Amino acid sequence: MRVCVIGTGYVGLVTGVCLSHAGHEVICIDNNEEKVKLMQSGQSPIFEPGLSELMQSSMEAGRLQFSSDLGAGVKHGEILFIAVGTPALPTGESDTRYVEAVAKGIGSHLDGSSYKVIVNKSTVPIGSGDWVRMIIMDGAKERQKELVPAGGGGGSAEELKLAFDVVSNPEFLREGSAVYDTFNPDRIVLGSNGSRAITMMEELYQPIVKRQFAEDKDAPEVPVVVTDLSSAEMIKYAANAFLATKISFINEVANICDRVGADVTQVAKGIGLDSRIGNKFLNAGIGWGGSCFPKDVSALVHTADDYGYEAELLKATIDVNCRQRLVALEKLQHELKILKGKTVGLLGLTFKADTDDMRDAPALIMIEHLNRLGAKVKAFDPLVSQSGLRHGLTGVIVETDPERLADSCDALVLVTEWKQFLELDFNKMASLMTDPLVIDGRNYLHREIMEKAGFRYVGVGR
Ligand SMILES: NC(=O)c1ccc[n+]([C@@H]2O[C@H](COP(=O)([O-])OP(=O)(O)OC[C@H]3O[C@@H](n4cnc5c(N)ncnc54)[C@H](O)[C@@H]3O)[C@@H](O)[C@H]2O)c1
Predict the structure, then answer these.
(1) What is the homologous superfamily of the domain 325-458 according to CATH?
(2) CA of 292 to the centre of ligand 1 (A)
(3) 6-28 pLDDT tens trace
(4) Does residue 222 line the site of ligand 1, with CB under 6 A?
(5) In CATH terms, is domain 237-323 a member of 1.10.1040.10?
(6) Is 291 in the pocket of ligand 1 (CB under 6 A)?
(7) Average pLDDT over residues 217-225
(8) Does position 460 have pLDDT exceeding 80, yes or no?
(9) In angstroms, rounded to a whole number, what is the distance separating the alpha carbons of residues 106 and 140?
(10) How does residue 145 score in pLDDT terms, banded at 50, 70 and 90?
């Protein structure tokens, strides 16, 4: 099928690349000309395992193109994905201005010559499906007014006879395994009021539903949840709110463990074996971050508020997380007392491993507070250090290798669970430090190995 994906970030680019790999003819549109040029040259502007390889092979096969020309994208696509960012406003509401701009742009390029499916892939507030329809119509009407001379009539939605439906198709991929998740999803959610649109979406996703590109090709078909627009939009928010709450829950348990002398890793194992609970998202640590959980939980709280409901549990989920982000700092103060004049080395900067995304990363808050308390902060991160991408980082010296990081540090804090951190030469690192103390902010390192290397090891909730 002919597909247009608008917005080539973590979601849009991965969606476009994977759909083209699955055999569709895809054009990806972005209004960032620099990014478009980079992609046209075969390079990915983001890091995701396996993405560059698939991108290059689809381009060579002639099924994947990049452009900044929205009109060309709208003309090409039977199915148009909106995959632009929806960051949080300072109030916690979702900032939908990018979605609005794209919807308006689509409207201004629709000519009614063929039926189109407009898909909200961006995470948008509940009710956005109808809102996007309205904005598309507004865009079309404005364009019509420009085309028809004053007093010449025209311009009404009916006269434009635009044939399109809006579908909500929320995305559940995880950064760091986005390509894998796209080909191995737990489910596909499709919300729409138009049956024609649903049929086209089901056809689009057939190769994925049938697991043609899955790791386990014999696994049962991917479940497709077909529902109304609002329920599909709510599924995305509810999923992220649940996962964030699960992490805040285990972090709360960890804080109690710390006080009573229990080990949260053992507790998580013990409760995770209960099939009603499950063992995922039960790793205690320095809290959740990234580009989705913080903004999506806040947006849901805000939506509830708009409708006169106080989402107390979700507010507590956020509060617990805000406090948890300071837990490593409290442990540093407990161990080192005065932080003024001390040097702290952060192992990892990104909000999770295998991504270069620094949005709302717990490391940022840690750097800010350590600076405020007078500590010098250094960091090493496999992607940030080696790519040279500093993401506007201030107040931190980014070192080029772990040993330079350890040199003259009073403490190390493990911030991101990068696999390669398990293989570091900790004996050497301990010998280079002023005080070989490690705060394991993710309970990821092995206490015995660290202690054998000469470290004083402090985990979270153990
Ligand atoms: N990142 C994730 O892990 C993830 C997972 C699930 C859902 N989501 C949701 O998907 C959406 C996209 O997230 P992302 O992380 O990919 O965002 P991103 O910020 O990485 O990418 C957005 C892209 O849209 C482009 N853009 C902005 N305005 C545009 C316009 N008018 N025309 C064309 N391009 C435009 C930007 O240049 C950028 O390349 C968000 O709503 C997010 O909540 C993200």
Answers:
(1) NAD(P)-binding Rossmann-like Domain (3.40.50.720)
(2) 11
(3) 999 999 999 999 999 999 999 99
(4) no
(5) yes
(6) yes
(7) 97
(8) yes
(9) 8
(10) confident
